[in-house]
Structures are given as structure tokens and as C-alpha cells.
């Protein structure tokens, strides 16, 4: 005699069918990652869903028997919704896609005939980022683009090019074992469970793993604890005690193993830096220098190193939310009532400036 209540993301619209669903409550919203080509950044933000999504959500209630859908918005709002969702190719960072196209020998991507051609601005932004990562040569007179040796090595990894660049830099810096863990975490959902009833418990549990260097190094501490629990075959108990998602940690383990196998295949230097996390943070700058922020006292916030047009705050979930580092790099930006940097690592801004100095001619194009 219980009622099953399920909270789901938009994955439940088409990918998952849960038996017994009779009622759907549709908020009319969707959380989606969008690439702002003019700013060269990815932003996770909440937007209105499309009519097609609303129809799919309502359909979840009637899969096995008649059901009801309650929409938390007026009919007028439904009439104003866009018919279908914006195609992914029009709203995402094309950096990974372009790298793969160049890898298979398509040197003139603008000549491709696509159903929904991406904006020229998005193509330019992705190509420019690949140049900043030393992955491609500048276009020749016929607008052909060719991979560099670095680009070929980046394309070997099934992760975004900036993260692959972190791995290559970590191999040179002697901290690849740690970088593999961090990149695996950055390729999944958050490992921490936060609900209304366990928020305090989760916060206290998270503090047990906090690293002064930031969230990415905190992930290293979490993984050490997880590995120890795996060894003792007490993962379920350890995850429950520390408010961790067992499924996500299992995914991290698998991704890390896959990436490590690729590193071995490419005879990369699989060393650990131990407690010398400076090497690791420098390696992370090599791939994420475009995500570097510096503190601005006048606005009491942070600005991207290559632009002062965005005011950024540290996300409340960060272990550094209570501090004020001079500079940091981040994994992603989240827009709610303001712009937040999520998953950050403290860096020396001079490391970033040293990296971008030879690329100033490209940064001027931003």
C-alpha cells in the first residue's frame, strides 16, 4: 500500500519505460548544456521544453493503462513553446566532432551537406579551440584543415579534446595516474547524493574528503576511499555511509580503466605524482586554460582570463565555496540566478599566462 514517486530527467521521455506509471507531473522545463559560441564556453542552464518533449512526457503515463498528465504551466505557455527541441548540432561545442572528422580525413568540414548546418560562429569557435590545443594546423589557402601529431594523439581518447590534452600533459609531468582519475570523474555525473533530509550529513561527509587544492583533488580522495572499499568488498556500505552514488563510482572505475588501457597502448608514462599535486594542477591547466578565472576585487567575483564580460561565482557545492582563491580552473559553468563555476582547482595564474603567451595571436580572434 505505497505510492511510487519517481523524479526523472528528460532521459525518461524516450529512453526509459518504468512500469506502473499512471500520473506524470510536467514542470515544462529542461536542464540542457549549451555552447555559447560568442563566449567560447559551455553553460548548463534551465530552459523551456518543446511541445514534442511535453507530448513525450505525457505519454509516459499511458504506456500500460490510462493515465493523467498534470502540466505546471498554462495552456497559453504550451502554445508558445517551440515545436521541437533545437538539434544538438546547433547548440553544442563541436570541438570533439571536428577532431573526429579531421581524424578520418575530412579536411573541409564546411563543404559537408548537413540537414541542420551548424552556425559558422560555432564551427569557427571549435576550430579555434583545436588550434589553441595544438591539435590542428591553421587552414590552408583552400580552407583545408589537417591534424597535427598532437591532434592524432588527442583523437585516440573517447573524451573531449581538452580532457585528452590534460592526460597527455600529465604523462609528461609524471602524474598520469591521478589525471586518469580526475578525467574519469569529469566524464560522469556528480558522485555525491544531496537530498533535503540528508543535506547536512552529505555536507559533513564531503568535508572528510576535501582537498585544499579544490574539487578535482577532492575527487582523488574519494577514489582512494572507494578503491579501499572495493578491496574489502564493502562498497555498498561505504557509499551509504558517505552519501555517495555507487552507480556513478562504478562508472568512474570503468572509464578510468578504459582510458588507462589506451594510455598503455600508446606507451604513455603511467606515473603517480604522490602528494606533489602541483604537477597535476599544471597538467590540468594545459587542457583547461580556457576555463581559467581570476579574482576581481571591484566586482567581488571572477572573470575568465580572456574576457571580462562575464561575472562568475564559485558554485555553492564546491569545497572552495567558503574561500576566495586568486585564480582557478573549472569543469563547467552553471547558470541559475547567476553564473557559477562548478568543480574547480586552485592554480597559479602565471601558469596559465605562460601557456597562452605563445597563442596570443589566436586569442585575439576570440
Automatic annotation (TrEMBL):
Q: Give an example GO biological process.
A: positive regulation of transcription by RNA polymerase I
Q: Pfam families in the record, alphabetically?
A: HA2_C, Helicase_C, OB_NTP_bind
Instruction: Report keywords, A-Z.
Output: ATP-binding, Helicase, Hydrolase, Nucleotide-binding
Q: Name one GO cellular component term.
A: nucleolus
Which terms does the record give in the GO molecular function aspect?
double-stranded RNA binding; hydrolase activity; RNA helicase activity
Q: Helicase C-terminal domain spans which residues?
A: 1-105
Q: Which reaction does it catalyse?
A: ATP + H2O = ADP + phosphate + H(+)
Instruction: Give the matching PANTHER family.
Output: ATP-DEPENDENT RNA HELICASE, ATP-DEPENDENT RNA HELICASE DHX33
Name recorded for this polypeptide: RNA helicase
Lineage, opening ranks: Eukaryota, Metazoa, Ecdysozoa, Nematoda, Chromadorea
